[in-house]
Amino acid sequence: MSARRGGRPLPALAAACVVLGFTQAAPAAEIPSAERRSGYEFMSRETRAMQDDDATNPAVLWLLDGEALWNRKDGAAGRACADCHGNARASMKGAAARHPAWDAAAGRPVNLEQRINACRAGRQQAAPLAYESRDLLALTAYVARQSRGMPVDIAIDKRTKPFLDAGRDTFMRRQGQLNLACTQCHDELWGRKLAGSTIPQAHPTGYPLYRLEWQGLGSLQRRLRNCLTGMRAEPYPFGAPEFVDLELYLMWRARGMKMESPAVRP
Amino acid sequence: MARAVVSLPATVKRGEIVEIKTLVQHAMETGFRRTQLGIAIPRDIIRLFVCTYNGEEIFRAEFHPAIAANPLLTFTTVATESGSIAFTWTGDKGFSLTESARITVE
Amino acid sequence: MTTRRDFLVAAGSLAGGIGVASAAGSAHATPAAMEEAIRKAIGDAPVRKGRVKLDVPPLIDNGNSVALSVAVDSPMTPSDYVKAIHVFSERNPLPNVLSVHLGPRSGRARIATRVRLADTQTVLAIAQLSDGSCWSDSAHVVVTLSACLEEGLI
Q: Domain for residue C40, yes or no?
């Protein structure tokens, strides 16, 4: 267990799981709505203070970039986001709380990053921004900021239901060398400790967020990739439909909870 | 371009002690990390922070690699007169950023 | 009988313990290097405990960003003020963390920042006063290892 892999200690998740074996499959129940808790509630007083104060939340630095990008003309059309959408504070209110959302052109739900890039391609005739690039994170954070305090509001209908089900299947399915499913930690063992960390319920209410571990801003898909790596499963590529389905399920699972973007997490 | 956010009250009473919060966008690369291929990542940090009040230096800080990424620094000053408070961060690789704020003293 | 959940908690704390022990193998400052850094900052002045309040959480879940504040009991008048505050780390790769220079115009001798702590260790703050005296406070911080970290850069 003290074996080193790539010069670092074997991560605690793997160590705990090797000891445990996780041999029994337990039928997972959804967390009752009265017991749902944001990752914020599991954080230390200092980290919560960091998120709450715009003067000390480092994600605010990215918001400034996002606001500049919102107003900057771009692409062959020479148009800015603001030229169509006006003031983001009004027009983007609630947008992040509704994503992933159905997109007729794509024929499937798209997340906020994909929506921004679709808008760039269609309206601005501009090249898409790369996943996890500073510009896409900044613009997404700026749009998501306008939903802060609003309840997550994912509409599920006949069109989106199959994608929700696919996302739920991914959440419930054991995968990777540790043969773990998301639900085992986040539905069954939330609130318990895994090394120094408290296992959260995995509600994605604050993305893109500033993670102390990353020392920067990152997307939900970056976090999901970290989870999969921890489970010793191969992560899907950024923007993969499997990830968007999982995002849809996670947001639906957090329905009614307050948006915190851009949040801070340890 | 890097960003900075400075927070202080816009209007204060003469003689009041004002709390100033500063936040600046910088990775503060320590110089002690390596890539997955084992190549050392050179140090790239902010070394110095200076705050001036109407041109006179009132506070100075020397940063080392142990300062967290996107440095936060909170300090205080006595409001003496209306004017401009300037904040300058300088560091490795020619990094230099200046931000300023107006303060009205009644 | 030990339940599965009890076992997970035990296994988790065990894994945490191993993580802390493994991390100790990395390069860090020696007591001699720290002493040298202190002398370089304040000269030969004796350092007494007191008048300084160093505030750091005793247990932190991520050493990348730890809230730290230092307050010094001083009237901050032109004849009696704090000239400088220095913060040192015992087990980071380098002993120096931060030095700030202030004066009567500061009004109050209190600063706050966020620091990196590579390991469980003692953090030291020394204040240099206008009369040449030096005062200090220290704090022990336990840095735990998080689960599910990103692969790649350490």
A: yes
Which of A121, A117, A125, A109 shows the shortest CA–CA distance to A143?
Answer: A117
Is beta strand B46-53 parallel, antiparallel or unpaired with respect to C82-89? unpaired
| Domains contained in chain C, number | 1
Structural domain including C117 reads: 27-143
State the DSSP string of A78-130: TB-HHHHH--HHHHTTTTGGG-SEEETTTTEEE-HHHHHHHHIIIII--PPPP
In this prediction, what percent of chain C has a pLDDT beyond 70? 78
Nearest to C34 by CA among C101, C92, C120: C92
Domain membership flag for residue C14: no
- Encoded tokens for A171: 């959440």
pLDDT tens digit sequence for C29-81: 778 889 999 999 999 999 999 999 999 999 997 899 999 999 999 999 999 99
| A84 belongs to the catalytic site | no
Region of A150 on the Ramachandran plot (φ > 0 left; ψ -120 to 50 alpha; else beta): beta
Q: Is residue C109 included in any domain, yes or no?
A: yes
CA distance C76 to chain A (A): 26
Residue ranges per structural domain of chain B: 4-105
Asked if C62 lies within 8 A of A230 by C-beta distance, the reply is no
Q: Is residue C71 part of a domain?
A: yes
d(CA C68, CA C141): 11
Instruction: List, in order of start, the domains of chain A with CATH numbers.
Output: 36-44+157-265 (1.10.760.10), 59-145 (1.10.760.10)
- CATH number for the domain formed by residue range(s) B4-105: 2.60.40.10
A52 shares contact with chain C (CB less than 8 Å) = no
What is this structure's pTM? 0.88
- Whether the link from the prior residue into A262 is cis, omega within 30° of 0, is yes
Residues C19 and A162: their CA atoms lie apart, in Å, by 42
Q: Are B72 and A65 within 8 A, CB to CB?
A: no
Rounded CA-CA distance C42/C44 in Å is 7
CATH code, C65 = 2.60.40.2470
DSSP A190-247: TTSEETTEEP-----TT-SEEETTTTEEE-HHHHHHHHHHHTT-PPPPTT-HHHHHHH
Quick check: C43 contacting B, CB < 8 Å?
no
In this predicted structure, the answer to whether residue A2 has a pLDDT above a threshold of 80 is: no
**CA B48, CA B34: separation in Å to the nearest integer?**
25
A12 and C145 in contact by Cβ < 8 A?
yes
- Token pair of C16, please? 């945490």
- Any A CB within 8 A of B33 CB: no
Write phi, then psi, for A124 (nearest 5 degrees).
-95, -15
